[in-house]
Amino acid sequence: YSAGTIEVSKALAGDDIAVEAAQDRVFEILVTCQVEEENGAGETVRSDVYSGVVKIKGGQTKVLVGDNDEPRLLPLGARCFGEETVTGGAAKSEIDFDSWENSVAVTSGTPEDLQALTISAVNTFENAELTVSKKVEGPGTGGAYDFTLACTIPGTGENGETVDGTYALPDADAAFSLKDGQSRTITIPAGVTCQVAETNVPSGAKVTIADSDDSTAGGDSDGIVANLTGEENTVQVTNTFTTPPPGSGLAITGGQFLGGLGLLGAGLLLVGGALFLLRNRRNENTVAADPAQG
Questions:
Q1: pLDDT 10s digits, 190-234
Q2: Which residues on neighbouring strands pair with residue 137, listed in sequence order?
């Protein structure tokens, strides 16, 4: 006789940014309920009384229902367990009852007072870090250089397939500036893919990129770091200048050149005046040394 029902509960745990990014993801758990029976040969066999996929989000609890939208009824002795088939990119997925040997059983209950069984699943998510650094070779501009950062995050499509969507970064991480020798570390959910690009590149600069991920189509020089995990993810952008860029204040302008000539001329006048005085003094000394003639 009917003695129990079954529900599934989903919780999210882990690092704050990663958990926030997973709030709208749909997870899938295959729930199986079985009973042991004897077959015609007297052997003990297991038979399914229910097997189906539950689609659920973090924070939800779903009661399994039948075709009539009423709670699915389980017989006395039924044992239920779950297996998560879509984990949503979690670093770890744990289910309290995950096999026949480790299952939850209908041990009491009546049609009038059904025993409620619960299978709980907890998915743990982690953050990752990406560090962007700036290096300048040659005269440079002496100022800051502009960057943009764009990221995608895997999700689940309508048919359960994995699809990439845009991951919205804070404004301060989506666009920022760095001077020579500076770096910026951005925290994102693990599993995200990001691309770094320099914008407003100064005239005369040769841009080279070295990143920590050589698995992408452009290798380790495209500024793309895919499926980020951990903290050792880097993109270094180098600008090489052979001459000072226009407007950097490092090139000698016409005004500066003329100013230099003016200072040089003033110096020459001072030196010339000193020589003139010295020559006159020598002439006076020579006259004073000659005897008087009468």
A1: 999 999 999 999 999 999 999 999 999 999 999 999 999 999 999
A2: 240
CA 94 – CA 11 distance, rounded (Å): 10
Contacts of 9 (CB under 8 A, 6+ apart): 60, 61, 118, 119, 120, 121
CB atoms under 10 Å from CB of 171, counted, come to 8
37-to-77, 175, 202 alpha-carbon distances in Å: 10, 65, 78
Residue 134: both structure tokens together: 């700036």
pLDDT surpassing 50 at residue 49: yes
> Does residue 161 have a pLDDT over 90?
no
pLDDT digits (tens, 9 = 90+) for 239-251: 999 888 776 654 4
User: In the predicted model, is pLDDT for residue 163 greater than 80?
Assistant: yes
Confidence grade of residue 131 (pLDDT, cut at 50, 70, 90): very high
Q: What is the largest CA-CA distance in the chain?
A: 164
The answer to whether residues 117 and 104 touch, using CB atoms and an 8 Å cutoff, is yes
CA 155 to each of CA 65, 160, 164, 166, 274: distance values in angstroms, whole numbers, following the listed order = 27, 9, 6, 10, 84
Q: Which of 165, 170, 168, 205 is nearest to 184 (CA)?
A: 170
Q: Classify 106 as helix, strand or coil.
A: coil
162 to each of 86, 122, 165, 189, 199, how far by Cα in Å? 10, 21, 10, 17, 31
List of long-range contacts for 227-231, beta carbons under 8 Å, 24+ apart: 227/191, 227/192, 227/193, 228/128, 228/129, 228/130, 228/188, 228/190, 228/191, 228/192, 228/193, 228/194, 229/126, 229/128, 229/190, 229/191, 230/128, 230/129, 230/190, 231/128, 231/129
**Residue 254: pLDDT over 60:** no
Length in residues, the chain:
294
